[in-house]
Write a structure and sequence with these properties.
Shape: globular
Organism: Ruminococcus flavefaciens
Largest sheet: 2 strands, antiparallel
InterPro entries: 4Fe4S_Fe-S-bd, 4Fe4S_Fe_S_CS, 7Fe_ferredoxin, PSI_iron-sulfur_center
Number of domains: 1
Number of strands: 4
Protein name: Ferredoxin
Keywords: 4Fe-4S, Electron transport, Iron, Iron-sulfur, Metal-binding, Repeat, Transport
Bound molecules: iron/sulfur cluster
Distance between the termini: 6 Å
Cofactor: [4Fe-4S] cluster
CATH class: Alpha Beta
CATH topology: Alpha-Beta Plaits
């Protein structure tokens, strides 16, 4: 299980800088999380202005 970024992402980039394991990168139209690297800390969800990262 990992966090997943929804289509609500506005590509502000805030989450990528907060991820302790560097699991977030810029994708096509939204930022994406590497599910194999994510440790489910929730930091990305905490800084996202639109609530796009969600635990699955
Ligand atoms: S939950 Fe934590 S480890 Fe997973 S992508 Fe978000 S900031 Fe990175
Ligand atoms: S913080 Fe939220 S809106 Fe900004 S890039 Fe990450 S998921 Fe997208």
């Amino acid at each position: 299980m990992a966090y997943i970024i929804s289509d609500d992402c506005v590509m502000c980039g805030a989450c990528a800088g907060e991820c302790p394991v560097g699991a977030i990168s810029e994708g096509d139209g939204k930022y994406v999380i590497d599910a194999d690297a994510c440790v489910e800390c929730g930091a990305c969800a905490g800084v996202c202005p639109v609530g796009a990262p969600n635990a699955q």
